[in-house]
Amino acid sequence: MKTALPAWLADGHRHIWLPYTQMKTAAAPMPVVRTQGTHIELADGRILIDGIASWWTACHGYNHPHIAQAVRAQLDSLPHVMFGGLAHEPALTLARRLCGLLGPGLERVFFTESGSVSVEVALKMAMQYWFNQDEPQRRRIVAFRGGYHGDTFGTMAVCDPGVGMHAAFDGAVPRQDLHELPTDDARAEALDAWLRGHADHVAALLVEPLVQGAGGMRMHAPAVLARLREMADRHGILLIFDEIFTGFGRTGTMFAFEQASVRPDIVTLSKALTGGTLPLAATVASRRVFEGFWSDDPAHALMHGPTYMGNALACAAALASLDLFETEPRLAQVRGIERALRDGLAPCKALPHVRDVRVQGAIGAVELDRAPDRAALCRAFLDAGAWIRPLGSVVYLTPAFVMPPEELRRLTDAVCTVLAAPPA
Ligand SMILES: *Cc1c(COP(=O)(O)O)cnc(C)c1O
User: Fold this and answer.
1) Do the annotations mark residue 148 as ligand-binding?
2) What is the pLDDT of residues 117-142, one digit of tens each?
3) Domains of the chain, CATH where assigned
């Protein structure tokens, strides 16, 4: 095994600023030289089984030839043109196909380049919808404890502050209204009572349906979403589902909201949209929301437009990714992963410091009593050949949907073994 770190790492590390990282104390990141399928190859020749699918994006595994081919062909013909005044087939076809998948009512797609920005656009759509209806006082967004919606200023305001790690910006971030998810009758009544007093200043409710991802893979029943839809309708406010994590099969259905048989007014998509290859996000609005902007007044237009909006390479990758949901048995694979995660993580329930083990679709989470030493835990997983990184006190697996059973078994075994004898 080669041991020397590559020169680009040593030379470049002095000039890079890494995400969520105390640069002084954190170990240098591991040099990756190649990806393939469910594997990450390091510079020293080690091959890791990826338990995270690169922040939940690489749902078909890495380097899928169908996506690679589509992006290559797009690169040769039309990599990018501005989206103001110009249109191209990949973006418009992708918009049509996304609406077809989302089902009736969700009709208009606004493309951006990151999940956070797609949530920003959803918030702007909701607020301006009311502004255009002569209700400009509806500025508040109701979001939920445990939620995460991004790192930009507008989205920080709708994150659970404990999840979003945003204390450094207190005072600069607009305050929004954070509530408990209505997971039982008492909480539903509390939220409803609050809405009775404040609904005329509320633009929208915002929630991650079924699973709050970055907040620690917190899961709730579909009935919670039905309650939120019902409350939104009763109080005449919009409902936004942030499906950036849950969308594209992760929870067992193409979109999580399908399991609740309710539909949002606005939905945000990103992460697995391009199968983990290129940055792209979408904010999809219902006919009602879109019609709120349909007017002879230029001031009623949606005032947003990222430079790289509707990037043709990213749209081509997304179209190819959608093809794979049709040509390969993705949702059946997710059902298989769900069974494997349930079986494979079950032994963790007996461990003394384990608070909860939960599974939904291709998401398996083991919640510990308290946050472990993440670096030590990561090293133990690396020794087991697995790429796994806890979120606070939650150790989780979100594998690619194509992961074969024997690799899933190696991941769940690694979690069980490492947590049974956690590193000091
Ligand atoms: C990751 C995530 C975001 C933010 O997406 P970025 O692309 O990182 O900006 C927003 N909402 C949810 C639910 C996410 O999981």
Assistant:
1) yes
2) 999 999 999 999 999 999 999 999 99
3) 7-63+329-420 (3.90.1150.10), 65-327 (3.40.640.10)
